[in-house]
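Support request from a user on the community tier.

User writes: "When I paste my structure tokens into the form, the page sometimes reloads and wipes my input. The last time it worked, I copied everything first. Here is what I submitted, just in case something in the input itself triggers the reload:"
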């Protein structure tokens, strides 16, 4: 049985990219179509066969019979004497998808190009299948090539790529670890240096105070006390900066209109900048509100202005502007780790010397500074970065050598009712205590004793508890408690849980949270409900007393 050489067959054979066309048009002698067809088949290096597809009642291929094969067929398949035999007889384990594929070609006339593995033959094939002759004959031409060696090479190359990728990922992980350890080294080294100096100022002053008291020399103690207090305050400032860098500082988020906040800072900024720096402030009309810690925002703006001043050693201009911006997905992606949406942007620009790309890339690293030794901690920008990220925003530097610097602080827009602000409480002279009862819950004995003594000295009655369960027991009693003062980071039952239980038992009870590090108990962006305040350790006794009195008088 033979199959006539149709234009379809010639075209499909030619598409294999071999010398089929030349073999057909030049090398094959003039003769009958059968002669030319057989000569063409002999010239092919690829396997070729014509099969008669056997269909079931649903017109699905279930087997096929070999009508004709070329000389390369046996080499490409390993099958011998195939003509007239069915594939299921030659290879009983041949996969079903082969029969179904050829059945689809026979029924639809669709030409298919694909690669499949034939497990029964132990080979991979690149295949072109096309219908030939009368559709009723269900004959399909199959041109195929054994590509198992190419597949093996591809698999080997893929395995090499995967192994190389794994090696690179491991190398990158090691590099990231090394960079992290370098930052940790810088961090711990800087902390040790600064804290040792501060501790020396505190312990040295205290030792001299003790010595002078023993000697009866009490006339000059105030100077030493002020020195110790100054060192302690600088240590507190350093810890706040470290917590800001690591995004772990306890924030007191409030709804803020940045324009009046910046305006209230102008006098302070002009004094800090000096007469050689010209300051201009431009606030956008109808500026959106944002939700953040007002004190930290003031500190961030002040730090940016001080950095800008130092970048202009002779003279220059400094601009502070605010604006509403809407970031699309692309802009947010360029800023890095921030979602698209509406933001309040505060920009601080200077006409100073600018930064190199290398300096910009390191600007937010802890203890990185371009200032001379002893003139900068290197925590200013890292603190601003931590504050921005902790507030749900971002900070971005636009700078180049010789053209100045602009630092953009992005804070999310707040939509809702403005929250109350208690920042003026610190400046109000407290009224005397009226015999109110204060419950103090603090696990540190020294701090608890200090708070109890301070409040007792102010005329308050005191209950004290060393942990959450003990404090809760007092709250469950019949005692008429006016105010709860609790540390947030209590072991076990934390201060937030104690306060929540207290306000269920005693609705409207006023609560003062104390904290130095409380991320696990109080959300960074959580608004404190009315009657609840937050004070950060270490705090000044006078400030603490004023805050307590202000809450009780509210």
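"...and here is what came back when it finally went through:"
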């Amino acid at each position: 049985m033979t199959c006539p050489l149709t234009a379809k067959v010639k075209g499909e054979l030619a598409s294999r990219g071999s010398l089929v066309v030349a073999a057909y048009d030049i090398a094959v002698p003039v003769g009958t179509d059968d002669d030319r067809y057989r000569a063409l088949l002999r010239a092919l290096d690829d396997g070729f066969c014509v099969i008669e597809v056997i269909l079931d009642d649903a017109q699905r291929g279930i087997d096929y019979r070999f009508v004709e094969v070329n000389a390369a067929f046996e080499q490409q398949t390993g099958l011998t004497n195939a003509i007239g035999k069915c594939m299921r007889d030659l290879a009983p384990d041949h996969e079903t998808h082969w029969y179904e594929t050829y059945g689809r070609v026979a029924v639809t006339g669709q030409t298919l190009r694909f690669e499949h593995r034939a497990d029964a033959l132990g080979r991979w094939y690149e295949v072109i299948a096309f219908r030939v002759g009368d559709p009723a004959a269900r004959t399909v031409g199959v041109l195929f090539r054994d590509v198992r060696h190419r597949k093996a090479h591809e698999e080997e190359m893929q395995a090499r790529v995967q192994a190389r990728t794994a090696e690179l990922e491991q190398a990158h992980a090691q590099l990231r670890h090394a960079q992290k350890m370098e930052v940790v080294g810088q961090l711990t080294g800087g902390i040790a240096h600064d804290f040792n100096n501060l501790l020396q100022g505190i312990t040295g002053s205290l030792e001299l105070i003790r010595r002078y008291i023993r000697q009866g020399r009490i006339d000059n103690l105030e100077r030493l006390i002020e020195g110790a207090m100054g060192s302690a305050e600088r240590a507190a400032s350093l810890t706040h900066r470290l917590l800001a860098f690591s995004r772990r500082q306890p924030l007191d988020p409030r709804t803020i209109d940045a324009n009046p906040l910046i305006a209230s800072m102008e006098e302070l900024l002009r004094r800090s900048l000096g007469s050689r720096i010209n300051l201009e402030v431009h606030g956008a009309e109808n500026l959106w509100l944002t939700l953040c810690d007002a004190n930290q925002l003031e500190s961030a703006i002040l730090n940016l202005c001080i950095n800008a001043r130092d970048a202009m050693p002779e003279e220059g201009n400094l601009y502070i502007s605010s604006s509403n911006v809407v970031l699309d997905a692309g802009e947010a992606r360029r800023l890095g780790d921030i979602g698209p949406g509406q933001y309040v942007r505060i920009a601080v620009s200077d006409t100073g010397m600018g930064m190199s790309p290398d300096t910009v890339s390191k600007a937010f690293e802890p203890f990185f500074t371009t200032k001379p030794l002893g003139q900068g901690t290197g925590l200013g920008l890292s603190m601003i970065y931590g504050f921005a990220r902790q507030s749900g925003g971002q900070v971005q530097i636009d700078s180049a050598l010789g053209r100045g610097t602009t630092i953009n602080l992005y804070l999310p827009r707040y939509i809702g009712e403005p929250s109350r602000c208690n920042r003026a409480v610190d400046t109000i002279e407290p009224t005397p205590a009226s015999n109110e009862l204060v419950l103090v819950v603090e696990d540190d004995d020294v701090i608890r004793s200090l708070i109890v003594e301070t409040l007792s000295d102010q005329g308050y009655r005191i209950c004290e508890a060393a942990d959450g369960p003990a404090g809760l027991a007092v709250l469950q009693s019949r005692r008429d408690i006016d105010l709860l003062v609790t540390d947030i980071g209590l072991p076990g039952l934390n201060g937030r849980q104690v306060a929540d239980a207290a306000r269920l038992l005693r609705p409207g009870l006023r609560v003062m949270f104390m904290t130095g590090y409380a991320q696990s108990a109080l959300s960074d962006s959580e608004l404190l409900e009315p009657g609840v305040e937050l004070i950060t350790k270490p705090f000044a006794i006078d400030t603490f007393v004023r805050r307590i009195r202000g809450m009780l008088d509210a």
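Agent notes: The reload is a front-end session timeout and is unrelated to the input. DSSP finds 17 helices and 17 strands in the chain. The first strand starts at residue 47 and ends at 55. Escalated to web team.
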